[in-house]
Write a structure and sequence with these properties.
Layout: E1 7-9, E2 12-16, E3 35-39, E4 43-45, H1 47-52, E5 76-78, E6 87-90, E7 107-111, E8 116-124, E9 137-145, E10 150-154, E11 167-168, E12 177-183
Parallel strand pairs: 10-11
Antiparallel strand pairs: 1-4, 2-3, 5-6, 6-12, 7-10, 8-9, 8-12
Length: 184
Amino acid sequence: MRGDDPFFAFANVTYDLPERYRGIAMPPGQGGTDSFTISSRELIVPATAIAAAGGRPTEAADRLVDDGSHGWRDWDQVNWGHPPLWRAWTRKVKDPAWRGPEGAALVFDIRCQAANRLLVEFETNGWGAFDAAQPAVSYNAVVPLQAAATARVTSRSPGPGVVRNAVSCPAAPLRRLHRWLVSG
């Protein structure tokens, strides 16, 4: 983290949904829910105010977005119970704590139980997140997966030292990346 980064904070509070509302019909492919979440407004504290109060960064940036050890905890999931239409995405790539440096590639390894295809999508500047005058752009690639084989997927052409079964995705500008999505 850099000393010129602002501080963002908000809170989510999740409650159990009363039993009488749990059986409400949902659109096909979507399961019911037993909870609901209320979110606070976002608080933004400029870096100058943090420095004036004597604050300083205590955490270093980490280029590892997710090591998979917590399952899908940091990923939003849609249609999880409907295999043809499932989607998962993370916005961690927008956070400076996980954002790669200029010129870096986003690389991930994936292993599947059966031969399949994976849609990989990188969204940049969504909602004008980095520059309201610039358009949001999505970069997409369909990655063929072999059963029980680990594939390495990179957001730029594989170079020397990258495994041979690497699949190249479009080179999304990582400094403007706001969402990384995978879908079956």
